[in-house]
Specification:
alpha/beta, single chain, 355 residues, 14 strands, four-stranded mixed sheet
């Protein structure tokens, strides 16, 4: 190495959580000298602050919900107001932003996640599983004394969702003040993916930031009740992914109305009917998915679609149809598993489907 500073950077790359005392001992320097070198690396943008986060240029950065998913499959028709017999509970990692991030990481793409989890068994399990699949979680917040969010889905005997309950109070604390702590990560991103579990003020702040700094943003809707988290001014938003019900919740039956508010690309999903892809100033185009084989579970298919779209736009930002086709293929694969994210998704799968 040419200098102690470069040797220090190499040690931080190997262990971002190493203490200054350990660094001093390894390099034969005083702690004050170590602090001085870290300060210089931070000013140069080569270290991003606490835990010595190292920038990954052009990474995909996912921001939003992370929780424990619980799925119950009914053994008969749903009857409200009474107890319903159901099959055993399946528990998996979940959350829209987290699911999208895991899909992207399994595809072999450099992916970071910003979310909030509790300092409990659920939160520790989410972070451990993220590390296993190659997700960078250095920007995540572990909230002391808080409970990790949960999402409970009730499925019919065919695997279709009848209702779902989301308890995600921690995501509400991803406020603009919290977001400012991860500004350096966003400036290094090649594409930012946010879900509308985020507070409205944070969504608006991120879009304003995108207008100033030019990092493209994809927003993924999560439910009709949360569509009010989008600001009226959608400038700074490259792509919005939502379903037909969420579009109607905006009072905009035509994607053209969203283009007038500033978003460049809109994808409207409609289950087996396919998707509508709309780009500002161009006619909308419809894509129909291949006929599905037996569907095991619909949970996670929408997030897989969003991940495929994001992977495609990260590679070729202007080719919306290619991105949507990739999303449909990834969603179709996810319908064939009980897992929220298909365990067989891989870099080889991405290479095969993008040739």
């Amino acid at each position: 190495m040419d200098s102690k500073k470069e040797q220090l950077l190499a040690l931080l790359q190997a262990d971002p959580f190493i203490s200054q005392q350990a660094l001093a001992e390894k390099l034969g320097l005083s702690r004050s000298a170590i602090a001085g070198h870290i300060g210089a690396l931070t000013r140069e943008g080569r270290v991003l602050g606490r835990a010595y986060m190292l920038p990954q240029r052009s990474a995909l950065l996912c921001i939003g919900g992370a929780n424990i998913d619980r799925k119950l499959r009914l053994l008969g028709p749903l009857q409200m107001g009474t107890s319903n017999p159901a099959a055993g509970q399946l528990e998996t990692p979940g959350g829209v932003a987290r699911n999208v991030a895991e899909n992207l990481a399994r595809l072999g793409l450099p992916t970071q996640l910003i979310c909030a989890v509790g300092d409990d068994a659920g939160g520790r399990a989410l972070l451990a599983q993220a590390a296993e699949v190659g997700l960078n979680t250095q920007g995540c917040w572990v909230a002391a004394g808080e409970t990790t969010g949960s999402y409970t889905a009730v499925l019919d005997d065919n695997g279709a969702m009848l209702m779902a309950l989301a308890a995600m109070p921690l995501t509400e604390q991803l406020t603009p003040e919290f977001m400012r702590k991860s500004g350096a990560l966003r400036m290094q991103a090649g594409l930012i993916v946010l879900d509308l579990n985020l507070p409205a003020a944070s969504v608006a702040m991120l879009l304003r930031e995108a207008q100033s700094h030019g990092v493209p943003i994809v927003a993924v809707a999560v439910s009709a009740p949360k569509m009010n988290r989008l600001p009226e001014d959608l400038r700074g938003l490259q792509c919005l992914i939502l379903n037909r019900g969420e579009l109607h919740a905006l009072g905009d039956p035509d994607p053209a109305a969203l283009h007038q508010r500033g978003v460049l690309q809109v994808i409207v999903t409609d289950g087996a009917q396919g998707v509508v892809c709309s780009q500002a100033g161009m006619p909308a185009q419809h894509l129909t998915p291949q006929p599905a084989t037996a569907i095991i579970d619909v949970t996670g298919a929408g997030d897989a679609f969003a991940a495929g779209v994001c992977a495609g736009l990260w590679q070729q930002p202007q080719d919306l149809l290619r991105a949507a086709r990739l999303g449909l293929q990834l969603a179709a694969m996810t319908l064939q598993t009980n897992a929220t994210v298909h365990p067989d998704i891989s870099p080889a799968w991405l290479e095969t489907h993008t040739q």
